[in-house]
Model the fold of this input.
Amino acid sequence: MTNLEESLPREILRTNRSGAYHCSTVVDCNTRKYHGLLVIPVPELDDENHVLLSSMDETVIQHGAEFNLGLHKYHGDNFSPRGHKYIREYECEKVPTTWYRVGGVVLKKEKVFVHHENRILIRYTLVDAHSETTLRLKPYLAFRSVREYTHENSQANKGYGLVDNGIKTCMYPGYPELFMQFSKENEFHFVPDWYRGIEYPKEQERGYDSNEDLYVPGYFEFKIKKGESVTFSGGISSTDVSVLNELFVSEAEQRTPRKDFKNCLINAAHQFLNKQGNEYYILAGYPWFKCRARDLFVSLPGLTLSVGEVEKFEKIMETAVKAIYSFMNDEVSNLKIYEMEHPDILLWTIWAVQQYSKMVSRDAAKEKYSALVVDIMNFIIDGKHPNLKVKENCLVYSDGRDKAISWMNSTVNGRPVVARTGYLVEFNSLWYNALCFAADMTAEMGHTDLSDKFKSVAEIAGKSFVDTFLNEYGYLLDFVDSNMMDWSVRPNMIFSAAFDYSPLDSKQKKGIVDIVTKELLTPKGLRSLSPKSGGYNPNYVGPQIQRDYAYHQGTAWPWLEGFYMEAYLRIYKRSAVSFLWRQMVSYEDEMTIHCLGTIPELFDGNPPFKGRGAVSFAMNVAGIMRGLYLLDKFENQ
Done:
């Protein structure tokens, strides 16, 4: 903790499961513009998150001597006030907890984010002290979008109002008031000032502006006795200060202890849940992603069903189904699910229903989702999808020349970096799988006319798939458009070997699994491009344009490994188990680096396979959780 080279890259994330979050480094030094103690959506302004309370500096005062426990980075690699040197211990099994020692003083700080409320709680406990001790707390305010910076200005409102054991303030019109209150009476000293030139090194790494000023309205001060606990509340509404300590204990008890790899993943999975009113979503990742349709359906079974949380699956699907029908009926929707128009979204929906059918109940799947499956299939077959057309060979065709349409969605100057267009291999793997699943489901329900319709399309599509994609080297082309074929070795072929229904025979599947193992498999997922293919660029570093070119040109993605494991188990069966468990070890290692207890967005494709991008990514957590589920199920069958 006292070595900043070790501690600054390690981040901590806590969310309220309604879109708000707290994120920082383990030494509470913000290194991203997205970091903050209280970061919340402000729908009255826009659909972005906003940093209200950036950080809180604690100062221990004894015999008139002040010891500041805060830490900020300023220009020129200068850190001040270097409070990390007082840290003696840190743990986050249940809630993030830091122990500071200043001479004979031992102070414990614990943080918890209240579920479904925009409120952060920090409990300070004076574990040990040999003389009278005073605690001073200095809040740093931002009141800005996570995508912008704040700078010293004359428009900021410096006024404040007194509330129970604290103050309320609001820097700019349109923002909610920030209430800062304590469980104990205190003195607020109004000493307004701007702290200028705070820098965020992670933004420097990413080639962005990285400098801002933060406003400090003053400081709170109170005496604290040995053994006493005082709880701070930062929120957008007033709270009953008499029960703050009890509220902290109640919230902390609800947390699942991160005592092992699986529990870490379960906690990470819960953080992606975003409840807005009566609607339930899955955020694609933290700290900057919203709810994206593809990420939602790919993640949904792994984040919920793999740990038996069936009700969550059903609630999220309830919201998603409304969005699907709004899209198919060409209606305007106020639901916060983005990119619904992408060609593979409806096919991933059917895959998610298929997992529910396998992991929960086939009868329940038919009862709840059979109408949806039939409506989606007819919508596509009848040619109503704007960019997923069933051709004469019964394969689906999409135009991706000018707009990225697949999960490989990076763009430069408005153009896709990887212009995948025509017959895409994973779209058609999903399509064949959906046709067969729909045919079986409708046959079981006695709808033979529908079943025969889907079967007849599937028969032609299966033969066309092999003829179109399988090449003489035993792997699948990535996409085919007229006479243009992409021979790059990419992971998109793995789906055809992983899905329950595949047009490939066992030998063909084995060939795909073997080449993926040989050229794409890393300890951190599947590479997005083989090192042997042209354009291989494995390091996701540098300014935005450089990173965009590397995004899907060799970087490794853990979510793909869930499908790889499924395919590997189909081919190698029981002999695969020990090998796949070894693959899990590298993800368990990840629990203590990058963002603690979760999986980042992607990794470099070459050693040391460094984590990059968003600190926590839903598809990756879901892919690993589903992989663990598959391994457990295989071992226990």
The chain has 16 helices and 34 strands. The mean pLDDT is 93. The two ends are 44 Å apart (CA to CA). The CA atoms of residues 324 and 340 lie 7 Å apart.
